[in-house]
Design a protein that fits this description.
Shape: elongated
CATH class of the largest domain: Mainly Beta
Number of domains: 4
Structural class: alpha+beta
CATH architecture of the largest domain: 6 Propeller
Strand content: 25-35%
Number of strands: 37
Distance between the termini: 59 Å
CATH topology of the largest domain: Neuraminidase
Amino acid sequence: MRKSFYILFATLLSMTALFAQKKATVKQGNKLFQSKSYISAAQVYEQLKPTKEILQNLGDCYYYNFQMDNAVKAYGQLFFSFKDSIKKDVYFRYANALKGTKDYEKGDAVMTEYLGFEQNTPKFIKNVTRNSPNSYELVMMSKNKTNGDFGISFYGDKVAFASLRNAEGKAYSWNERPYLDLFSASVNENGQLINVQPFPEEINTKNHESSAVFTKDGRTMYFNRTGEQKKIGEERFATVKIFKAEFKDGKWTNVTMLPFSSDEYSVEHPALSKDEKQLYFASDMQGTIGSMDIFVVDINEDGTYSQPRNLGETINTIHREQFPFIADDGSLYFASDGHQGMGNLDVFISYKLGEKEFDKPLNLGSTINSEMDDFNLILDYNTGKGYFSSNRTGDDNLYTVTMVENKLLFLVEGEVKDKKTSELLPGATVKLYNQNGDLLEEVVVGKDGSFSFNTEPNKIYKIMAFKDFYIPAEATFDTGKDGKVYIDLEMKVESYYDAEDIINKQADGTVLIELENIYFDLDKWDIKPQAASVLDVLVSLLKKYPYMEIEIGAHTDSRASELYNLRLSNRRAASALEYLVKNGIDRKRLRSKGYGESKPLIICPKGDCTESEHATNRRCNFMIIK
């Protein structure tokens, strides 16, 4: 069941029968759509020519009833034909519909257009799941997946929840299913609901009842009920209100509406603070930032209430924030589709900072959130147990939740990028070292440029990224006193040719260190003073970059035989290598090769070179190989 009906309840019966004998028309479809009879409206729209209005309304009908495959089909046709004139809020619904079918690539593309900045949901899911303080093990609480159970709360040693189990009640036109009632139940050792009982008629009426919350002594109950119908224009609707009931002499009595409820807006999902001095709720009252915001009122000692206070932009967005719950430590759990998530409603936690302030919300990750609506998480920190609601199976269902320590928090991961261009660098090698400098693990990153390592608590690590022709990057981190850390490293490595003017990348991809030419006397290979001064520059460069490896290539002129020149060039290259080793460069970083006369810089006509041209061809090149 789409949770949006908590914003506005339409209490008309389905109008399908009225039009059953008539040919479908746009007017009929729109009348059903305006009355929130979305299932019936969709049946009419499906028979009509797909105009812009019909496609948008049809997509909305399916979206509001969480039929995401059908919503994607309608919205997709709408965007294909009319994208240039579509309102931005439709982008938001289309993106979430795509995410609801796990098409994150298209969903992110549409959401990126809506938000104006890039979205990457798969990466976000991976990150927040590892960054969540806990993982969550889930067990569905009922074997019947179509009961429409949700809105669970602690009720002494039992639970209370809303459900569509009252199959004898009249149908609700939004989705043509029964009206909601409140039920109580026990939970067995397997996390299943047993001994399910409806609340008495003092609580359950002909309208919707849901989202009950109780004081610790079980004598006061706050819950939702739809109010009386009201007509605005052609539309009849009823807002959602919060009622209070008292348990006296074995029954619920004194059922009264709270004073901040209204016929003009809805107040939903009551939640008590642990000292029972504050009541939190969701509402679309005046002063909301988005479609639904979370508010709080103080419960005064005389039973009156303060004016509602909006929790502000840290918690609330321009979209939906609903189903608040206050944990034992004062943390706020709530559901939102406005904060970045996995699609549709996700569960978030916001830690309390002061008397009235909450920290930036944290998504609880993929062990509890899905691409569908996930909401109404309640937890008992003493037992590590709790419950929540989700429609990931197609209908609302309740789940038993067990919190476990998130072992993924010991991971470190990141990406390797070019420092200058910020482009990903697939093929880079990333190495993990312990505090003593011992190599623990290394990986070669794939096309996404990403890496990850398992780490341990209370340890210091160093991580290094290597790429041929790049200066290695490194970072040091520790896993903290609790061993709970998630580190997202962006290892930006700089190429040698960006870092040094004397290093240049050639058209053929080779990277050369461009130094003055080293000249050798005819038939000689010893290092002359001029050559030594050039090689000293190379020594300094190799000491500056201790991971650089080079090839020394020696060339001769064309006087003498090819075999003689090849032997001579090998001796000259080896002589330059030995000079570098003698001056402190590790032999493992060096390679020498003689090319003889095979690669002259100057090709003389008929092989008749001048003495100057022969000297130019007698040279050494220094090529970076790693």
